[in-house]
Write a structure and sequence with these properties.
The protein has 672 residues and is an alpha/beta fold. 38% of the residues lie in helices and 11% in strands. Strands 3-2-1-4-5-6-7 form a 7-stranded parallel β-sheet, with helices on both faces. Strands 10-9-8-11-12-13 form a 6-stranded parallel β-sheet, with helices on both faces. Helix 10 packs across helix 16. The longest helix is centred in the first third of the chain and has 25 residues. Belongs to the UDP-glycosyltransferase family.
Length: 672
């Protein structure tokens, strides 16, 4: 049997900060031999340059009601997200159904932020799913703890100037200015949509049996943050940096394209030519991403700072920023034609866009003045370029904290106390000079560059993590019929909640099928619309009984994959409570033998009381004869008045009489 190619469905929010890492992730899946379907809005799909789309990538676009692209000024963000969800749910469901009909069923659905509904659809269709987290692991930790016990603490952050937060296993202590902006009570409309959306995202993971979060980071960069949360909750898997390989380990020198190029923004020939004429590490690169728009006042301060440094610079001012600022301030004179523009053009180069990762990889770039979006921050770290952190909103404030205090690859600007929200030109100049002249910062940046390349290369930690994830997804095959039909057949008490990874002989699955057929006593009248007859070897009476057509041949699939099933650490299930024998359970090295405590193996009515009707035990199955109604006799006795004594037979009788207490004595017939 030819090995089937795994099929991944990637669903992403139509923002470039989401599409960039999702597309790089898709390219890695394609290189690993998978089929990939990429689903996003029509507006995002239209921007892609067909000539630059990786071979093997299939697009499935859907309309979100804004086929020319949505901007917050176009209307209510919540209304847009609702429409996006409605269209997305329908499209993803159709894609999953189509994949089954075409014999290329989706192996795993991967989705980015702001679309937790994708996981709900995957769960409905019994398809494994994983979240592609496009921010640092530290930010995931903050949101996770906020919705799991720390909400009241965080909500006080703006009331007390001395407020700080120390999370379990978290690498730094946070102040209010370090938190993601969505957590701040003062977050203005329309950005209030963020926090409820992240809450749904975290809660969706909580509904999964084994939630996995693929994080665009690498282990050495965020080792503490990746382990801050118990892996049994969501498992954080570092698979970054998700950047073109030509700028990492050079494994594929032709892989230089990113979604910036796909969006038709790769007009950077003049940028590279200009950079090549500059001295090494001399250029200040300035860019505030694809969304952030600075006020005209802030633009003036930034322009003055660049002039004052007397250094060459490359400044990206997007067309959208010009238009957005003009519309926002409602004054044509406010368009970004600053009074100092002529002087700026003499000293540096101002463009509307460039391929950022290519610019950052150029040896002439000495520092990066950035809004600290995670893609920009990570690209700078991976390129070994120091940062001037100029955060605006969402995760950018936390990223700036990590850059300055944890990774020590840059400095963060300070907002003017007199003019709220404004960073003065003197402060910007100070930060640029510190970064450009600090050998320590430059050495730190170089070290993180080396570690990023090490993680991404073949055999590196992120490469191994992604390979392991794909193998686990591919090998996680189950028969989808059991959970679907169990409730309708009245078999709710039969609950399968494990996956067999180590099988010993080829008859296991056949035995399971025999059990199903014989237990359900399936006849021709039991199932309508019969489409196939299954024969089971060795069961003559049932050999021609019809069943519903399966999605695949389970026995063939099992035989194909049994050689790939991983060798596992021996595990022993022990009838004991964790709290009762915590030391004993940990006394043996878990790499050699894993002891797993399970709840007391008693009828549910007498243990967790989830099922008051479940009182029967094996004693009832052995049909011991009952002599008298002992429960009726016990009822009138006082609470805790009975004696249980386990001594020798004669001694027990002699000891019970003098107590003058009631007793219930069980004597087996053979003891009499």
């Amino acid at each position: 049997m030819e090995e089937p190619r795994p099929h991944f469905l990637l669903v992403t929010f139509p923002a470039q900060g989401h599409i960039n890492p999702a597309l790089e992730f898709a390219k890695r899946l394609l290189r690993g031999g998978a089929n990939v379907t990429f689903s996003t809005s029509v507006s995002a799909r239209r921007c892609f340059d067909k000539a630059s789309i990786p071979e093997g990538l299939t697009f499935a676009a859907f309309s979100d009601g804004h086929d020319d692209g949505f901007k917050p000024t176009d209307g209510d963000v919540q209304t847009y997200l609702s429409k996006f969800r409605q269209s997305g749910v329908q499209t993803v469901a159709e894609l999953l159904e189509k994949s089954v009909a075409e014999g290329n069923h989706v192996t795993c659905l991967v989705y980015t932020l702001l679309i937790p509904w994708a996981a709900e659809v995957a769960r409905e269709y019994h398809v494994p799913s994983a979240l592609l987290w496009i921010q640092p692991a530290a930010v995931f930790d903050i949101y996770y703890y906020y919705f799991n016990g720390y909400k009241d603490v965080v909500d006080e952050c703006e009331k007390d100037p001395s407020w700080s937060l120390e999370l379990p296993g978290f690498p730094v202590i946070l102040t209010a200015r370090d938190l993601p902006s969505f957590l701040l009570p003062s977050t203005p409309y329309p950005y209030t949509f963020g926090l409820p959306t992240f809450q749904v995202q975290i809660e969706a993971l909580g509904k999964m049996d084994n939630p996995k979060v693929l994080v665009n980071t690498f282990d050495a960069l965020e080792s503490d943050a990746l382990r801050s949360i118990d892996s049994a909750r969501p498992e954080l898997i570092p698979i970054g940096p998700l950047l073109p390989t030509a700028f990492l380990d050079g494994r594929d020198p032709t892989d230089k394209s990113s979604s910036e190029d796909f969006f038709g923004c790769s007009r950077n020939g003049d940028c590279i030519k200009w950079l090549s004429s500059q001295e090494k590490s001399s250029v200040i690169y300035v860019s505030f991403g694809s969304i952030s728009v600075l006020s005209k006042t802030q633009m003036k301060e930034l322009g003055q700072a660049l002039i004052q440094t007397r250094r060459p610079f490359l400044w990206v001012i997007r067309e959208e920023a010009r238009k957005g600022q003009k519309e926002k301030e409602e004054d044509e004179s406010n368009e970004v034609e600053l009074s100092c523009m002529e002087e700026l053009r003499k000293r540096g180069l101002i463009v509307t866009w460039c391929s950022q990762v290519e610019v950052l990889s150029h040896p002439a770039v000495g520092c990066f003045v950035t809004h600290c979006g995670w893609n920009s921050t990570f690209e700078s770290l991976t390129s070994g370029v120091p940062l001037v952190a100029f955060p605006q909103w969402t995760d950018q404030t936390t990223n700036a904290k990590l850059v300055e205090d944890l990774w020590k690859t840059g400095v963060r600007v300070k907002v003017s106390a007199e003019e709220q929200g404004l960073v003065k030109s003197e402060e910007i100049k100070r930060c640029v000079e510190v970064v450009m002249e600090s050998e320590e910062i430059r050495e730190n940046a170089k070290r993180w560059r080396e570690l990023a390349v090490e993680a991404a290369k073949e055999g590196g930690s992120s490469h191994i993590n992604l390979k392991t994830f794909i193998e686990e997804v591919v090998n996680h095959f189950t028969c989808p019929c059991w959970s679907t039909i169990s409730s309708s057949l009245g078999l709710q008490k039969w609950h399968v909640n494990f996956m067999c990874r180590h099988l010993h002989h080829e008859s296991n699955l056949q035995s399971y099928l025999i059990f199903i057929i014989t237990t359900l006593r399936i006849t021709k009248t039991s199932v309508r619309e019969i489409s196939v007859v299954i024969e089971v070897n060795g069961v003559a009476s049932q050999s021609q009984k019809p069943m519903i057509q399966p999605l695949f041949n389970p026995l063939s699939l099992y035989l194909h994959y049994r050689g790939k099933l991983r060798r596992t650490i021996p595990e022993i299930l022990i009838d004991v409570l964790q709290a009762l024998e915590s030391n004993g359970l940990r006394s043996i090295d878990i790499d050699r033998l894993k002891l797993i405590p399970i709840e007391p193996l008693l009828p549910s009515a007498f243990s967790n009381r989830r099922d008051p009707a479940h009182k029967s035990s094996s004693r009832d199955l052995f049909q011991f004869p009952e002599e008298g109604n002992y429960i009726e006799w016990l009822s009138p006795q006082e609470k805790s008045s009975m004696i249980c004594y386990l001594g020798a037979y004669v001694q027990l009788g002699n000891d019970l009489v003098p107590t003058h207490r009631s007793f219930l004595w069980v004597i087996q017939e053979k003891e009499c």
